[in-house]
């Protein structure tokens, strides 16, 4: 019985690794690992202990973490893979005797329990996407394609490699095939350490054994493979080099898989012939958790974890951990080795992610077509309602109303940006934490095309139609300014809703926040309440309103130089043409016309200087930059663990 002999397993050569990003790692050791969290969703957050004083060592080969549901398997694996919040962690994890390097998680393959992949991509495209972004740039496209094909064949995905992933509405591949695709996306990178959380869940018995045999073969090449698994068949159990049995976050056994039965027998727990050892271990642990066993030759009320802690095996392990903590194995350059977590450049990442975004839009055109058709119908409808506006007082009112409604529509259309991002948030977090791309590449190539193609393009087309139908000023410079304001308002509304999508975890929360912000901005637009009538100390809020900034520019652009007949005079003179005259009524001088300038003055909108039309545009542009930075920052600071 020798604790350290866990690591006397074969030493492969880490063959197939792409050496520029993959250091050959042979051992992970962990000492006194304790992990606790503050439980979410309670007013007084209670501390919950998940792991307590766990020790161990895992080496090249197939290592399994077993235990009942909720025993802490995933948490332990996450800690070893450097994917847990260090704030709640106590103890040390050493990689080949060295502290875990900063970017360790990018050096490892990690298959999560839940799988989230882009629905419109095929299996081959998904695996190629992973290879394209995560393999070093010196690996040619041809080599990547060959590697992808090899992994597809290895996991038996050949016959369905061109099938789409699908989603809840569009039937795609099965859950098991999805899992295999995810595993393939990690295998294709050929990391020297591979973590797999419940890789066989969702697979039939035969495929599970096949998969585990594949993982065993991979580990025989000198790779360190760690899996968490619930209740593997004996055929799978036989493949494990080492097993770690957990019970309520404590170690019940850690050592060679083929010694475990002997160890339990030494405690009086005899595994019956023909019984699957894993079933036997889990049953024993379950009984131990329930009733605190009172077995002959054992100290009463000692449970399996205490017994293991006091065992000879555990003390050998402790000694070996103590001794190995300072050994570097020549890998003391681990930290400097992986300075840059991304093997591909910012531009390459933006190109690859952008290409996928475009493919997604092209392959699910319904949403885009629907947005395009609805916005054109609304454009035509508004154009019909505000058809060829007259230069009368009602024409002035209609102009203001129409411009306000155009801005309202832009905000409403961009509400969908919340959903667009929320939908892909899980995929973004998964891909980002797996080192596919930088946040900036994703932002540039995923968020921005979405804003431009799905939101801005339809709005610009419908507003061009609307502009011509309403009879707004026909000069090209006025139309250009109109479309520029529409563009900036669109970017603002889109960025605002992307920000809200990043900020909150559900559509309803984001929609409530959006409603609140929109109402505030509408109040300060100026046409529901006259800003000049408000107390000075609150008037500044108008500069925070996209509506106010946009509307003031649109109004200056449209109204300066226009004259509007008072409808009253047109009726009494029965003259449909507009004339400019003044009448003296007692002390009052009444004009037959209202000028656009007079209206703007009454609204507190500056118009006299050419710059006045640009004031709102510059405000909108600055606002767009600020909102984009906020959205980007929200994406960066998103909790990614
Ligand atoms: N962030 C967290 N907040 C609260 N509880 C947590 C948190 N993370 C883990 N837990 C709890 O810790 C325990 C261990 O979780 P973990 O996912 O590691 O178990 P597991 O053995 O992998 O379970 P399963 O076999 O079901 O996957 C569970 O009871 C879980 O609810």
TrEMBL record:
<keyword id="KW-0813">Transport</keyword>
<dbReference type="GO" id="GO:0016887">
    <property type="term" value="F:ATP hydrolysis activity"/>
</dbReference>
<dbReference type="GO" id="GO:0005524">
    <property type="term" value="F:ATP binding"/>
</dbReference>
<dbReference type="InterPro" id="IPR050352">
    <property type="entry name" value="ABCG_transporters"/>
</dbReference>
<keyword id="KW-0812">Transmembrane</keyword>
<dbReference type="InterPro" id="IPR043926">
    <property type="entry name" value="ABCG_dom"/>
</dbReference>
<dbReference type="GO" id="GO:0016324">
    <property type="term" value="C:apical plasma membrane"/>
</dbReference>
<dbReference type="GO" id="GO:0140359">
    <property type="term" value="F:ABC-type transporter activity"/>
</dbReference>
<dbReference type="GO" id="GO:0008514">
    <property type="term" value="F:organic anion transmembrane transporter activity"/>
</dbReference>
<keyword id="KW-0067">ATP-binding</keyword>
<protein>
    <submittedName>
        <fullName>ATP-binding cassette sub-family G member 2 isoform X2</fullName>
    </submittedName>
</protein>
<comment type="similarity">
    <text>Belongs to the ABC transporter superfamily. ABCG family. Eye pigment precursor importer (TC 3.A.1.204) subfamily.</text>
</comment>
<keyword id="KW-0472">Membrane</keyword>
<dbReference type="InterPro" id="IPR003593">
    <property type="entry name" value="AAA+_ATPase"/>
</dbReference>
<dbReference type="Pfam" id="PF00005">
    <property type="entry name" value="ABC_tran"/>
</dbReference>
<feature type="transmembrane region" description="Helical">
    <location>
        <begin position="368"/>
        <end position="389"/>
    </location>
</feature>
<feature type="transmembrane region" description="Helical">
    <location>
        <begin position="401"/>
        <end position="422"/>
    </location>
</feature>
<dbReference type="InterPro" id="IPR003439">
    <property type="entry name" value="ABC_transporter-like_ATP-bd"/>
</dbReference>
<dbReference type="Pfam" id="PF19055">
    <property type="entry name" value="ABC2_membrane_7"/>
</dbReference>
<feature type="domain" description="ABC transporter">
    <location>
        <begin position="28"/>
        <end position="273"/>
    </location>
</feature>
<dbReference type="InterPro" id="IPR013525">
    <property type="entry name" value="ABC2_TM"/>
</dbReference>
<feature type="transmembrane region" description="Helical">
    <location>
        <begin position="613"/>
        <end position="635"/>
    </location>
</feature>
<feature type="transmembrane region" description="Helical">
    <location>
        <begin position="480"/>
        <end position="500"/>
    </location>
</feature>
<dbReference type="GO" id="GO:0015562">
    <property type="term" value="F:efflux transmembrane transporter activity"/>
</dbReference>
<feature type="transmembrane region" description="Helical">
    <location>
        <begin position="506"/>
        <end position="529"/>
    </location>
</feature>
<keyword id="KW-1133">Transmembrane helix</keyword>
<dbReference type="Pfam" id="PF01061">
    <property type="entry name" value="ABC2_membrane"/>
</dbReference>
<dbReference type="InterPro" id="IPR027417">
    <property type="entry name" value="P-loop_NTPase"/>
</dbReference>
<keyword id="KW-0547">Nucleotide-binding</keyword>
């Amino acid at each position: 019985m020798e604790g350290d002999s866990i690591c006397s397993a074969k030493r492969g050569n880490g063959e197939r690794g792409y050496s520029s990003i993959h250091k050959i790692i042979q051992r992970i050791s962990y000492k006194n690992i304790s992990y606790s969290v503050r439980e979410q969703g309670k007013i007084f957050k209670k501390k919950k202990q998940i792991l307590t004083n766990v020790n161990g060592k895992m080496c090249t080969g197939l290592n399994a973490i077993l235990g009942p549901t909720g025993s802490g398997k995933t948490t332990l694996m996450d800690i070893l893979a450097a994917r847990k919040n260090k704030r709640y962690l106590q103890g040390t994890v050493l990689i080949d005797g060295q502290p875990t390097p900063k970017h360790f998680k990018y050096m490892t393959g990690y298959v999560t329990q839940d799988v989230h992949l882009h629905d419109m991509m095929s299996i081959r495209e998904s695996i190629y996407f992973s290879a394209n972004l995560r393999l070093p740039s010196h690996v040619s496209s041809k080599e990547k394609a060959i590697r992808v094909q090899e992994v597809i064949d290895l996991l038996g995905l050949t016959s369905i490699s061109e099938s789409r992933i699908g989603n809840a509405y569009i039937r795609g591949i099965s859950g098991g095939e999805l899992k295999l695709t995810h595993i393939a996306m990690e295998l294709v990178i050929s990391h020297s350490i591979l973590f797999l959380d419940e890789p066989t869940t969702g697979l039939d018995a035969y495929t599970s054994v096949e998969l585990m045999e594949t993982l065993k073969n991979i580990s025989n090449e000198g790779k360190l493979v760690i899996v968490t698994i619930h209740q593997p068949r004996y055929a799978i159990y036989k493949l494990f080099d080492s097993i770690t049995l957990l019970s309520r976050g404590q170690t019940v056994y850690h050592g060679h898989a083929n010694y475990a039965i002997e160890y339990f027998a030494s405690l009086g727990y005899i595994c019956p012939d023909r019984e699957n050892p894993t079933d036997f271990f889990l049953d024993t642990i379950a009984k131990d958790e329930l009733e605190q066993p009172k077995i002959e030759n054992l100290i009463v009320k000692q449970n399996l974890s205490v017994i293991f802690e006091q065992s000879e095996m555990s003390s050998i392990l402790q000694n070996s951990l103590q001794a190995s903590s300072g050994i570097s194995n020549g890998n003391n350059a681990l930290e400097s080795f992986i300075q840059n977590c991304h093997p591909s450049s910012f531009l390459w990442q933006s190109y690859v992610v952008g290409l996928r975004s475009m493919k997604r839009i092209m392959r699910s055109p319904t949403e885009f077509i629907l947005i395009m058709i609805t916005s054109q119908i609304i454009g035509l409808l508004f154009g019909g309602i505000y058809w060829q506006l007259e230069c009368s007082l009602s024409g002035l009112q209609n102009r203001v109303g129409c411009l306000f409604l155009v801005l309202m529509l832009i905000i409403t259309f961009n509400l969908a940006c919340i959903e667009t991002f929320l939908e892909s948030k899980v995929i973004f977090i998964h891909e980002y934490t797996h080192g596919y791309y930088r946040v900036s590449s994703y932002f540039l190539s995923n968020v921005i095309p979405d804003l431009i193609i799905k939101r801005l393009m339809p709005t610009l087309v419908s507003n061009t139609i609307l502009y011509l139908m309403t009879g707004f000023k026909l000069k090209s410079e006025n139309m250009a300014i109109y479309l520029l304001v529409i563009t900036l308002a669109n970017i603002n509304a889109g960025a605002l809703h992307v920000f809200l999508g990043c900020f909150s975890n559900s559509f309803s929360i984001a929609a409530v926040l959006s409603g609140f912000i929109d109402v505030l901005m509408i109040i300060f637009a100026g046409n529901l309440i006259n800003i000049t009538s408000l107390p000075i100390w609150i008037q500044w809020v108008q500069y925070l309103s996209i509506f106010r900034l946009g509307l003031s520019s649109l109004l200056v652009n449209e109204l300066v130089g226009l004259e509007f007949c008072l409808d009253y005079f047109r009726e009494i003179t029965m003259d449909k043409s507009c004339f400019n005259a003044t009448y003296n009524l007692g002390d009052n001088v009444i004009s037959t016309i209202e000028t656009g300038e007079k209206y703007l003055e009454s609204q507190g909108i500056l118009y006299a200087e050419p710059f006045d039309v640009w004031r709102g545009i510059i405000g909108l542009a600055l606002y767009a930059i600020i909102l984009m930075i906020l959205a980007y920052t929200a994406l960066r600071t998103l909790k990614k663990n």
